[in-house]
Design a protein that fits this description.
The complex is a heterodimer of chains A (100) and B (156).
Chain A lengths: L1 H22 L3 E6 L6 H12 L3 H14 L1 E7 L1 H13 L4 E5 L2
Antiparallel strand pairs in A: 1-2, 1-3
Helix pairs in contact in A: 2-3
Chain B lengths: L1 E6 L2 E6 L1 H13 L17 H29 L4 E4 L2 E7 H21 L14 H25 L4
Antiparallel strand pairs in B: 1-2, 2-4, 3-4
Classes of the chains: A alpha+beta (100), B alpha+beta (156).
Chain lengths: 100, 156
């Protein structure tokens, strides 16, 4: 009983630290250029996934097209994963990377 | 393919016989992108990346199953029927998004089967098999453009 009670605070602290790391912005969501996805389609997907107005979605679409990639969001791991899942459901080439 | 009505419930299109045949052909090709194509990160693999990859694989597998249901509904005539000498396609707002995902999967999957070319392919350099992939890719793009037009400019 005593051992269990003594061990509990450490466990809780470790879990809290891990959760904090996962929740802090430390990841970027990147969309990479490819020659197959239609420009209008990419704009539409950005609007749907991020809720952006058309102008902002078009800006990022053009960045992808002209510069090869665009950083779409800086987020916690959990949120970055969510966005990558949504973008890949539309078959866009999107990944999450650690924010350098 | 012509948009004839948009309301709170969704979209209604009229399709020529040829449009219907081509759309159904594309739906039969779904899914076309191999699951291994989807990578969650470009960084070196580690425990966290492996975990994230597993989550992505699970999410996409679930989505493929859900999308397959909508594709099956279209193929079985649940959303595409004959009425007054024309074919009618009725899609809810959710279904039109799913149909775009399905079509883009066919487009990207066909492109992968062509060897993921960076530049436009020369028709004379293609064999019969690759010509079919190219046709599927272009047709999927055509239908995607129609659906996007309906969503973005429903009045035009």
């Amino acid at each position: 009983m005593v051992e269990t009670i003594e061990a509990l605070p450490e466990t809780v602290e470790e879990q809290q630290t891990k959760s904090k790391q996962d929740l802090e912005p430390g990841y970027v969501v990147i969309c990479w250029n490819d020659p197959v996805n239609l420009m209008d389609y990419v704009t539409h997907v950005f609007q749907k996934v991020f809720g952006w107005p058309r102008q902002k979605a078009e800006f990022h679409m053009r960045q992808v097209h002209e510069q090869g990639k665009s950083v779409l969001a800086r987020e916690s791991l959990e949120k970055a994963e969510h966005y990558v899942h949504q973008l890949q459901k539309y078959t866009l080439h999107a990944t999450l990377e650690r924010d350098a | 393919m012509k948009l004839v009505e948009v309301n709170d419930h969704g979209f209604r299109f009229h399709l020529a016989l040829r449009d219907r045949a081509l759309l159904l052909h594309l739906l039969e090709l779904y899914p076309r992108v191999p699951p291994a194509h989807h990578q969650v990160t470009r960084q070196a693999p580690g425990d966290q990346a492996r975990e994230a990859q597993e989550l992505l694989d699970q999410a996409l597998a679930e989505q493929r199953r859900a999308n397959q249901k909508v594709a099956s509904k279209l193929l079985s005539g649940g959303a595409l029927w004959h009425e007054n000498h024309r074919w009618v396609l009725a899609l809810s707002h959710e279904e039109i998004e799913i149909l775009m995902q399905v079509l883009n999967d066919v487009r990207v999957g066909s492109w992968l089967l062509l060897g993921a070319p960076e530049q436009q392919l020369l028709l004379e350099a293609l064999d019969e098999n690759k010509t079919q992939h190219l046709v599927a890719m272009e047709l999927a793009g055509f239908f995607q453009a129609q659906l996007l037009q309906a969503i973005q400019h429903p009045a035009s």
